[in-house]
Amino acid sequence: MIFAAASMAASEKKKWLFTIFSAAVVSLLIFLSVISVFIASSALISTRQFPSLVRYGAPHPPAFAYYISGGRGHKDRIVRLLLAVYHPRNRYLLHLGSDATEDERVQLAQAVRGVAAVRAFGNVDVMGKPDAQTYMGASNVAAMLRAAAVLLRIDSGWDWFINLSAMDYPLLTQDDLAHVFSHVRRDLNFIDHTSDLGWKEYQRVQPIVVDPGTYLARRSQIFHATEKRPTPDAFKFFTGSPWVTLSRSFLEFCVLGWDNLPRTLLMYFTNVILSQEGYFHSVICNSPEFQNKTVNADLRYVVWDNPPKMEPHFLNYTDYDQMVQSGAAFARQFQKDDAVLNMIDSRILKRGHNRATPGAWCAGRNSWWTDPCSKWGDVNVINPGPEAEKLNDSMKRLLDDWKSGLKSCK
């Protein structure tokens, strides 16, 4: 009986020790699992892509606000152009006119959100409520002023406003453009202009037109009045290219300005044919504050037919050599997916299909299966290429002309 009792006590002790040991092992396994999850989570957090801090102001490269517009069927063109001119330091506003469908606008927004850098930096917006853009009508000026107002409101860092159409394309990288403009006064405006009206005085200035896009939902052609009006003498009429690079200070003057000149001229140009070829030109050259800050150039490469038609010649591979040697920043106009665009992508922009143009901000490997701009480094660093020298040479000549005062607002 004594032996049996002792045996039972030893058995109970073994069970108790086994229970403690099992509990300790389970606790250790749980602890190790928690540690491993924590380490894995830390590793994921440490390798996650965070956007680099964008720094603005004179010590840093300039930033550009792009207004890219198009119409029905231009969604893919706008996406391609956006990727060609994309840089995290810039701001972009994309606009499909009222002739495009709501589905096209949704698809455009989805395509933009599909770009990793755009999601991270949040510097691209798609205009939700479209503007009417009547051919040859004043609604084009209204759309551009709205775009300027939006860009001024949502981003305080950009220095110059650039308008592009879906049929335009860059001839250099954004690192090239920022490098050249780093040596330019940030209150200068680049706008092709002249007061020598010639045949335009009778055919463009004096006719009175009404843009139905300002008050009708569907009509798309301007109305012509039967009478004409005299050329204005309260201000000097200037005309030129509708493609501009305007300073932030000048657009603040046009949109938020204390002077009534921009609003007075806007009322007049509401009834002018192709008012986008005269409004900003006349405002800037009739303003004492800005007329001496105007460089007479639009920085575009364009080839006109002879005699010139309403629209320029469509550029193709036969224009490539002269185009890239022109020293222009942009060229127009191109057919959709023309072969010459692929030449620009591969030879100048070094841009892969459906990828942003790489720059110093791109920190990933560059291969046919890896996008170098899927990872990024310091976006405030730029690395200009050979095309920057061509634009820089053009810029020096333009600034020499500007300093002479012989070609600005004359």
Main sheet strand line-up = 3-2-1-4-9
Please count the beta strands (DSSP E, at least 2 residues each).
12
Label the structural class: alpha/beta
Q: So what's the overall shape? A: globular
Assign the CATH architecture. Alpha-Beta Complex
Keywords: Glycoprotein, Glycosyltransferase, Membrane, Transferase, Transmembrane, Transmembrane helix
Membrane topology: Single-pass type II membrane protein
Transmembrane segments: 16-45
Pfam family, one: Branch
Features:
410 residues, alpha/beta, Spore Coat Polysaccharide Biosynthesis Protein SpsA, Chain A, 5-stranded mixed beta sheet, 3-stranded mixed beta sheet, 13 helices, 11% strand, Glyco_trans_14
What does this structure look like?
It is a single chain. This protein is of the alpha/beta class. It has one domain (64-404): Spore Coat Polysaccharide Biosynthesis Protein SpsA, Chain A, CATH 3.90.550. The protein contains 13 helices and twelve strands. The protein has helices at residues 2-47, 75-84, 102-113, 116-121, 139-154, 174-181, 200-205, 248-256, 261-269, 279-285, 320-324, 339-349, 387-404, and strands spanning 64-70, 91-96, 124-126, 160-165, 168-170, 189-190, 207-210, 223-228, 245-247, 294-295, 300-301, 330-332. The strands form four sheets. The chain has a five-stranded mixed beta sheet with strand order 3-2-1-4-9, sandwiched between helices. The longest helix is centred in the N-terminal third of the chain and has 46 residues, at 2-47. It is globular and about 65 Å long. The termini are far apart. Mean pLDDT is 88; it is low at 1-18 and 23-48.
